[in-house]
Amino acid sequence: MIERTVNFERLRYMRCGTCSHEWEVSxxxxxxxxxxxxPCPECGTDCTSEHRPNFWVRPxxxxxxxxxxxxxxxxxxxxxxxxxxxxxxxAAQLTDVTKxxxxxxxxxxxxxxxxxxxxxxxxLHVGTYEAAIENxxxxxxxxSDAGSQFYLHRVQLRSDCVIEPGxxxxxxxxxxxxxxxxxxxxxxxxFRYVNVHEDPSNVSLAIEIDAVWRVQSVPIPLxxxxxxxxxxxxxxxxxxxxxxxxxxxxxxDDDDPLERLLRRHRKQVTPxxxxxxxLQDEAADRLPPLRRTxxxxxxxxxxxAAAPSTFPAKLIGLARLFxxxxxxxxxxxxxxxxxx
Length: 340
Known about the structure:
The protein is α+β, with helices and mostly antiparallel strands. It is 32% helix and 14% strand. It is built from ten helices and eleven strands. The strands form three sheets. A four-stranded antiparallel β-sheet has the order 4-6-10-11. Strands 5-9-8-7 form a four-stranded mixed β-sheet, with no helix packed on it. Strands 2-1-3 form a three-stranded antiparallel β-sheet. A hairpin with an 8-residue loop joins strand 8 (190-194) and strand 9 (203-207).
């Protein structure tokens, strides 16, 4: 099996939708491109065009070869400890009231069963280690998963999985929902596409569960031990602020009704919460440039006294998913394989 070198800061590969020019770019170039300050160097098409430059895969990428695809380790991050799960029941999350409403709104009986079948038919997604970690950050940032426990799954494909020829553009769909039967030949269970959201310009796969042979899984981030020097320092900083409860307020101006109204509704930030925010900003600064704004960790101020190291440990652990991927992969390698 092939374990790829992890590199969150590599150059990205682009292809212009207007002139088909291809070239490599840095994170700084992408920042300028997104603000309209950098166009295609060949034809001048910028980010406002319908045919704007977008991420693409390098012509020499080994994943063009089907045998390489089958020989690579692939990754997925999820809030499910067991993934993929043949016994997964999408309807388990529905209340009886919801099921009744679905049936009432359907054109014919069996709406819930058809919905379940459609959910089970959706492709699974796997990609590089980088893509899996970045997907977790995205979910923590904008899908209310800031406080969720995540798991990293390392996947081996079956040697007889059937791969759709070529590498394709990422399919436009809601939340990555794709049914391979609608895009590929009946026997295909692996579809290669260029990921433009996580680890952009690298290839990810949309797969059916029958393409998976076995999986290793580990909770992420990895545990940070209590004797870790970085954790001790960060925890001490929080403890130093924990006793400061008073929030300094500007002098009241009874003659200004607007100021009185704003003061009544102004959210009070304790020194403890403020220091937690500083720690999060410092952890974000250690991430690759493209991912710094996505670090979002839930701080439980009410539960801080009972477990003061929980929040800094998570920040440190998340940062180390980027700075020390070898430790994560080595930990995964120690886990038993689960046949799917």
